[in-house]
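Case 419 in the screening queue. Each case pairs one protein sequence with one candidate compound; here the compound is iron/sulfur cluster. For every case the pipeline is the same: read the inputs, emit a complex structure as tokens, and attach any notable structural observations.

Predict complex for case 419.
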Amino acid sequence: MTCLKRQGLEPRERQAGRPDSDSLETMRPRAPQSTPAALKNGGRVKSTGVAPADIYRPDHNVLTPDMRSPQYVQMSTAAAITLGISKGRMYRCSCTRCLNLLLTYPEGCRANCAYCGLARHREAERDYADRNFIRVDWPAASTEQVIDIVARQGDETPFHRMCISMITHPNSDADTVSVLRQWTGRIAPETVPVSILSNPTTMTPGDVRRLRDLGADIFTVAIDAATPEIFERTRGKGVQSPHSWKKYWDILLAARDIFGLGKFGAHIIVGMGETEHDVLALVQRLVDMGGHSHMFCFFPEKGSLMDHLPATPRDQWRRVQLARHLIDYRGVRVEHMTFDGLGRVADFGLPAGELDAIIASAIPFRTSGCPGKERDDVSACDRPYGDSPPSDIASYPFQPNKRDVGKIRRQLGMPRPAG
Ligand code: SF4
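Case 419 output:
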């Protein structure tokens, strides 16, 4: 077994006496401020009514056009660069393998999640299509144009997967169906399979079934918070947001029954005040149900209600990434691991040599999400720099090289064994 303590190789932060699992008390969101009536529900965009052009690149200094799904969608900056509709280069990435499409409305998302840049409390400060989300801008284009580009690429498309991200809006169920229909009408599921990042709050099991029947491949639920308490504080009544832990689990269980084994998953954000054991117990629960977990390292998103809080310490994040990989893909169970008094992983439950080979492969430290065409444990959804800056990478959107692995080992406090 590989025990951090036994090796005397404790991570730097722990050696310096710093608690490396940020406490529930520390990770408290700010309270949302009220919004003037005229600016609520996309009032500024709807009252000016600027007609959209082909592409809209977020710019807070110009009037945001009146764009609405299903005719328009937003996409990650990485997807826009890969599609060729935005110029730019990404650090050590030539493209993204996942075309993340986000539904868009002047009213924006009606939820208020504390860590999210799209949240409703930003209505006065920034129009919806100008808001940053997982650290990047989301350009908008007509849905038809986006689908047309990928359809013309055919088998040569760089995308291994497309994902429709629903938001909390009264039209998002119907518009997700419409975007999915448009997509599958032009692009075969074998060429680019589709994932749905759902919005359980407005959905019924019937909606889940409909998306499967229309050709969606994988269904995911962004639980995000690892415990009911953190969920309530960051996504529920704590921030005047409509979500409930129970409804999220009801839809996740429906997805298990409807989409089946290996075809559903849950997003979890690491570092919002939960313990490492809390997260990994949830990862184990998902595996026992037949699903997967997709992990995000907490980053203080600019403009969010948690933008004043610290990003997840790297040693904490690396332990959770490694342990999650072992549970999801290597048959290790959370009960095989040991945890210290603060719920931190103290032993990963594998012989040292085996664990070292897995660390050397670097696969556990790549971005996690729905699979692409490379291998089952490598995500198509690579989200370049969605949870960290390139200078201090949390989720690697590419295969880490030897130097990267050396850095990861230092962050874990587990240097390569001698010999
Ligand atoms: S529902 Fe999703 S998009 Fe809306 S505020 Fe919450 S995390 Fe952000």
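Case 419 observations:
- Residues 4-412 form a domain with the TIM Barrel fold (CATH 3.20.20.70).
- The pocket of iron/sulfur cluster is lined by residues 109, 111, 113, 116, 118-119, 167-168 (CB under 6 Å).
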